Amino acid sequence: MSEFWNQWGNVVIEGLGQTLVMVFVALGLSIVIGIPLGVLLVIARPGGVNSNLPLYSILNSIINVLRSLPFIILLFLILPVTKLIM
Questions:
Q1: Three-state DSSP state, 70
Q2: In percent, how much of the chain has pLDDT > 90?
Q3: What is the percent of the chain where pLDDT is above 70?
Q4: Torsion of CA 57, 58, 59, 64, to 10 degrees
Q5: Shortest CA distance to 43 belongs to which of 32, 34, 52?
Q6: Three-state secondary structure call for residue 45
Q7: Which sign, positive or negative, has the C-alpha torsion 47, 48, 49, 55?
Q8: Which of 17, 26, 42, 63 is buried most, with the most CB atoms less than 10 Å from its CB?
Q9: 68 exposed, middle or buried (CB, 10 Å; 0-12, 13-18, 19+)?
Q10: pTM (2 decimals)?
């Protein structure tokens, strides 16, 4: 174990730092973009504080498409595995 850390310790620590930076940047962007969009959706929904059906419909459609993107990416990544199984 000591030999591993002597050889790869700096690389692991550097990679961990880069990973944490990417996680916190993504988290920050998600908060800065997601919370205002969520509040806007709640305000604009039918029966909301400031009901605005066209704005709500457009935002809701865009958010639903964006929400499904990770699953679509995963679907394409799994396709080669399913070809191997069948």
A1: helix
A2: 85
A3: 100
A4: 80
A5: 52
A6: coil
A7: negative
A8: 63
A9: exposed
A10: 0.70
Distance, CA of 65 to CA of 59 (rounded, Å): 10
What distance in Å separates the CA atoms of residue 64 and residue 67, rounded to the nearest whole number?
Answer: 5
**What spatial distance separates the first Cα and last Cα of the chain, rounded to whole Å?**
41
* Distance (Å) of CA 71 to CA 8, 12, 54, 56, 68: 34, 30, 27, 24, 6
- pLDDT tens figures, 5-18: 999 999 999 999 99
Domains located in the chain, CATH noted: 2-85 (1.10.3720.10)
Task: Please give the single-letter amino acid code of residue 29.
Answer: L
Tokens standing for residue 12: 């692991």
| Helical packing angle, 2-44 and 53-85, nearest 10° | 140
| Tokens encoding 10 | 């700096």
Residue 4: half-sphere exposure toward Cβ, Cα within 13 Å = 3
For the cut 90, the answer to whether the pLDDT of residue 84 exceeds it is no
